Amino acid sequence: MAKISSPLALLFIILSSIMINHFHVASSKTWCVATLTATNAQLQANINFGCSQGVDCRPIRPGGSCFIPNTLVNHASFVMNSYYQSHGRTNQACSFKNTGTFAATDPSFGKCVYAS
């Protein structure tokens, strides 16, 4: 069996960990967003619920970083994701009575940054 010198082994371990951290294939990041089939009433209820449960809703208010586009689906998605991220990232935390779904692609845009 071939022996590897300690410095070479250390270099291999460091390079391996760097490469593993740069692979996006097995990314564990997920976001919770509103389904496109949710009604306006459901989206508003999700916003009301999330904001009443400690989610910082200032970004979706006028002048906030996520106010534009000023649509219920965008505002609800931001609030739903904030709730999901702050409540254990569980399936239940993204359910919102079956109006939430998971996204594997970061929905952030411009100055509106979704937590991950």
TrEMBL record:
Q: Name one GO cellular component term.
A: plasmodesma
The record, for InterPro entries, names:
X8, X8_dom_prot
Q: Which UniProt keywords apply?
A: Disulfide bond, Glycoprotein, GPI-anchor, Lipoprotein, Membrane, Signal
Q: Indicate yes or no for the key word Lyase.
A: no
Keyword check for Iron-sulfur, yes or no.
Answer: no
Name assigned to this protein: X8 domain
Annotated signal sequence is 1-28
Membrane topology, from the record:
Lipid-anchor; GPI-anchor
Annotated ranges, domain X8: 30-114
- Intracellular or extracellular location(s): Cell membrane
Major localization class: membrane
